[in-house]
């Protein structure tokens, strides 16, 4: 090793050590993460006052907690694409006073995520004002993409930020596999919480690191980093996931956890329309400003490493989410960390461009997040209001008559169905079972979710044919599978009601 190489390595280590000392000395915020986390947890659909605001997927998560508490098995009795750690958390969160603990878990996850987000943003830019604005943006994304909480991707955020933090030495040019054992362990935890988020995040990061090592002609280094990460992954993944082997659901867990990847395909105009709307969201929150940042601020080692990674990850989640048949902006949650990463450098660019006058600098620094909103004519706030309020308005105004019919049918089921009866609701809502206090006749709780796989359609039809629930509720606005329609005709009789949209069938 030449004297020049030794000196270069020493400088990199000194800079990295100085950055770490600055990060340790910085006073992490307490109040803003606390207020944001309290706000998000209060409006959680786990709060009984807001349960009716839940989306179909959130209703399925709530049902999973209720069913697991009564001895049913996830992946076998309840179809789930999240990981075993997430369902363990949902089971535990539903064990005391309904879902009180779920609200607490959501609060803790949001709080620690925000503090870690601030620390990493400050470490990447060295600017407290940028870190504060980035933290507000981080919570803003959680609010508008994951309103109501409980999505498994939200519980991965603290670990994703820790994983990004472990890559800071790599961005500083340090060679070696130090930290990759912990990096792999974090990958195992994330995959066991949300398999799709884990495979997407660490897959994107892995490809990016491979490209950088290939470009630097350091494939040996890349191989040692990969091996260290795999060892760390194995040390946690297999012991923690052994519970699925023990209860015989390991194969089902693998199959259901890979649902998003199995349905990754573009087959028609619907996906293009979805891609368009998701693209509008990315533009609406100002993420293209991150591209402008490529040439408009100082090219630090951190920015040259993390900014392309943010762009790569954003494009990846946009592409994969657009391929899914189930439309919903919560599909973008696995990419939230990349959106936030891009915005850090956008804030850095905004702040760096506001240096001319002392008074102007002070005024702008004190409201950097507000300056970001103003630069986009407050479009992100408008977009956030639309994403949160439009579904609520549709549910309470557009479906008012349908909701009345649902309550009428639920009252009938609660009165007429026996305790041991099973039911099934061919509806866009999945809260029928908990409301009626009855098991679902199928692990697939709703015909509008997880039906992009032909095997799931077959499974749903077979479940209804084999279990033959006493009652089946049918929303006539939703198309029936041919086998299900035949089963209704031959095995069930329609209960006479005054309903217009819903039909109730009872087993003969």
Automatic annotation (TrEMBL):
Keywords: Membrane, Transmembrane, Transmembrane helix. The keyword Transmembrane helix applies. The keyword Transmembrane helix applies. The chain crosses the membrane at residues 30-50, 84-108, 137-163, 183-211, 223-240, 275-297, 304-321, 327-347, 368-392. It comes from the Bacteria. This is Heme transporter CcmD.
